[in-house]
Amino acid sequence: MTTFEERRTAFGNKLREIREAAGLSGTELATVLGWQQSKVSKIERGKQTASDSDVVAWLGAVDAPEPLAEHMRAALRDLQVAQLTWRRQVRDGHRERQEQGVRDAQSAGTIRAVDIMAVPGLLQTPDYARAIFETQADLLGVPNNDIEDAVAARTARQQVLYDRSKHIEILLAEAALLHPVCPVDVLAGQIDRLVSVLGLRHVRVGVLPAYRPIPHLLPHGFTMLDAEVRFESVSGEHRITDPDEVALYRKLTDALWTAAAEGDEARAQFLRVLEALPT
């Protein structure tokens, strides 16, 4: 269990204690709030992150005193961030984080990746991945002595692309190829890799062409592993498991695919970028 999961479980336990102190059963509280009883159970057992409105409604239903309510709201703010700082995660290098990524990808049945400023990890060449790790280590001021191990782990994760039992979709914006953090020759090799992956018929790969209107704003890239969404900010990784929020990301992903180039159109798009690279 991760630190975040432990904190969410502790938060759920506290909500359960507050409910029990008010003399309500889980079923009774669900009835008062107009929820399914399973929602109360999931929140109390730390299987679902409560939203702001969930906690406000919960505390109101049990008539919690204001000092306790404020304490719980503050605890929720910390919990909802669900932020695992990269500096802490990679303070001893990148390898451990990438090896965890291998395990997560292997255990997931559905993987849906969307990115706007980088080629998603499942499609990165070793040289492209190496450039990403080097720039990240420089920005965060963390060790870079295990970058080759991290590259090897990221490459190993790509074995899931050949597992036909998995549902895999990878969508990237053309902008990810127009503003690279790697040399031109490395980018050329990366584009060749994208073209070759289009031949994997059981893996859906698409590109959002530059200047093509998209149905909704895409503020950041993200990856959906089954019922969990992960995305990276400059300093941390965020994880979302709330069903309503995950459903919103699923809806966004579905909408973005309506604007994507796939198959021969995607191949032509990648080759146009490749041909336009400076020599």
Tell me the layout of helices and strands.
Blueprint: H1 3-21, H2 26-33, H3 37-44, H4 52-61, H5 66-81, E1 83-85, H6 86-89, H7 95-107, E2 110-115, H8 126-140, H9 147-157, E3 167-173, H10 175-178, H11 184-197, E4 203-208, E5 222-225, E6 228-232, E7 236-240, H12 243-257, E8 261-262, H13 263-275
Helix pairs in contact: 1-5, 2-3, 4-5, 7-9, 8-9, 11-13
What does this structure look like?
The termini are far apart. The longest helix is centred in the first third of the chain and has 19 residues, at about 5-20. By secondary structure, the chain is of the alpha+beta class. The protein folds into two domains: about 5-80, 434 Repressor (Amino-terminal Domain) (Orthogonal Bundle), CATH 1.10.260; about 85-275, Endonuclease, Chain A. A hairpin with a 2-residue loop joins strand 5 and strand 6 (about 230). The chain is elongated, with a radius of gyration of 22 Å. The model has no long low-confidence stretch (mean pLDDT about 90). An eight-stranded mixed sheet has the order 1-7-6-5-2-3-4-8, sandwiched between helices. It has helices at about 5-20, 25-35, 35-45, 50-60, 65-80, 85-90, 95-105, 125-140, 145-155, 175-180, 185-195, 245-255, 265-275, and strands at about 85, 110-115, 165-175, 205-210, 220-225, 230, 235-240, 260.
State the domain count: 2
Biggest beta sheet attributes: 8 strands, mixed
Q: What class, by secondary structure content? A: alpha+beta
Question: H/E order of the elements?
Answer: HHHHHEHHEHHEHHEEEEHEH
The count of helical stretches stands at: 13
- How are strands sequenced across the largest beta sheet? 1-7-6-5-2-3-4-8
Shape: elongated
The CATH topology of the largest domain turns out to be: Endonuclease, Chain A
Mean pLDDT, as a whole number? Answer: 89
What's the total count of β strands? 8
Distance between the amino and carboxyl termini: 49 Å
Beta-strand residue fraction = 5-15%
Cα-atom radius of gyration: 22 Å
Unreliable stretches:
none
The proportion of residues forming helix, as a percent range, comes to: 40-55%
CATH class of the largest domain: Alpha Beta
The CATH architecture term of the largest domain is 2-Layer Sandwich
